Amino acid sequence: xxxxxxxxxxxxxxxxxxxxxxxxxxxxxxxxxxxxxxxxxxxxxxxxxxxxxxxxxxxxxxxxxxxxxxxxxxxxxxxxxxxxxxxxxxxxxxxxxxxxxxxxxxxxxxxxxxxxxxxxxxxxxxxxxxxxxxxxxxxxxxxxxxxxxxxxxxxxxxxxxxxxxxxxxxxxxxxxxxxxxxxxxxxxxxxxxxxxxxxxxxxxxxxxxxxxxxxxxxxxxxxxxxxxxxxxxxxxxxxxxxxxxxxxxxxxxxxxxxxxxxxxxxxxxxxxxxxxxxxxxxxxxxxxxxxxxxxxxxxxxxxxxxxxxxxxxxxxxxxx
Length: 320
Ligand code: ASP
Ligand code: MG
Hints:
Layout (H helix, E strand, L loop, with lengths): L2 E6 L7 H16 L3 E6 L5 H12 L5 H25 L4 E4 L6 E3 L8 E4 L2 H8 L3 E5 L2 E3 L5 E3 L5 H11 L4 E6 L20 E3 H9 L7 H10 L3 E5 L7 E4 L9 E5 L3 E5 L7 H13 L4 E6 L3 E6 L5 H11 L2
Helix pairs in contact: 1-3, 2-3, 5-7, 6-7, 8-9
The structure holds aspartic acid and magnesium ion.
């Protein structure tokens, strides 16, 4: 039987009603005949709230203690989801990071996963259970709890998928997938069907907060397809995987106020696309500070602020 890993973000598990939606998704996939491993984030804004509450107690919170505190958010989600799945008649078990065998280095608050001992996870799967793992946490050599840095549950999910040699890693959240540009800024933004790991890393490094960067690196290293999808509809999401020889423009990102990046494999060889962008810059009499092209990314920094209209123009010419 193949194994799939499903990760649900904070907004997907925010309250009991949402947990019910999540449970139904899990049951649906389990019924398709997979071993199902689930990784969850803390509910809603729990992590922010815990940080704020700790800061009220001390301005110099110790990283070790913050890890003990913050890891509790994810643990609550695992227990609630497991209680619900068992209630619905599907055997499930919650595991903390250490119970799941996730070993990290000693950097509290920003730990790196060093190895995953999958013995316990595999035993529970063999018993037919849905295994629910607390995201964003592990244990170090001192047997202290560590956390992986904000947004780290994505990284837990892909690392667990790699360790289990899973078929896919689904990242469920409140967005449908990865778009050609920020859909809140531009109505014409299109959802992408597929992206390479490299393109996804380029997009994230330009500030688009779709996935935790480290999870894309792990996906690339172990060749785990990452599928980003919405928890709240059945629309097809975006698949991040290895793609051979394909070059279309994937994304146009405006970072801060004076930098635009265009991402797509092979962009360096597509002179006409480069020219199109330079023409828009010239027509709008923009002052370039820096122009940089790599295999899959072209970035331009400007002297002054650039408006969303420029983003719109470039998007319209290269994508729409
Ligand atoms: N709960 C953690 C955070 O809010 C980890 C995560 O959501 O991935 O940063
Ligand atoms: Mg989160």
